[in-house]
Amino acid sequence: MAKKKGFMTPERKKKLRTLLRKKAAEELKKEQERKAEERLRVIAERCGTKADFENANVDDLKKICQQYFDKWYGLEGEMFFLQREVILRDLQINELTISVSDMKGKFIKPTLKKVSKYENKFAKLQEKAAKFAFANQLKQSKG
User: CA-CA distances (angstroms) from residue 35 to 38, 40, 43, 88, 137?
Assistant: First the structure.
């Protein structure tokens, strides 16, 4: 009796892999194109269309500048309030974390700042150098 070959021969596996790679490459390319289009759409939505500076007279340029300034001013205000909200939420998260650790009886050790041994010695040396320089200046001014 002749042995029956398996369904997935090495040639079929190789062909299947290449087809899967091609399909994945196509999907990736489509996804990148979609993201690029979405990015351009969002930029156009947020910034608006480009103003025509070349054909504008002084009054039109003033209006364009005022429009850009108003938009910028509004966005700065929004950014300030968003930053404030982020800070408040961070504080709330920190307070909740502390209260949870209090309830569990686990306390988080704060990370300590690493201080160099030589930093203090260097500061003392600088003070001595300053005193010495001051003494030399006094001697020079007298003499």
Answer: 5, 9, 12, 33, 69
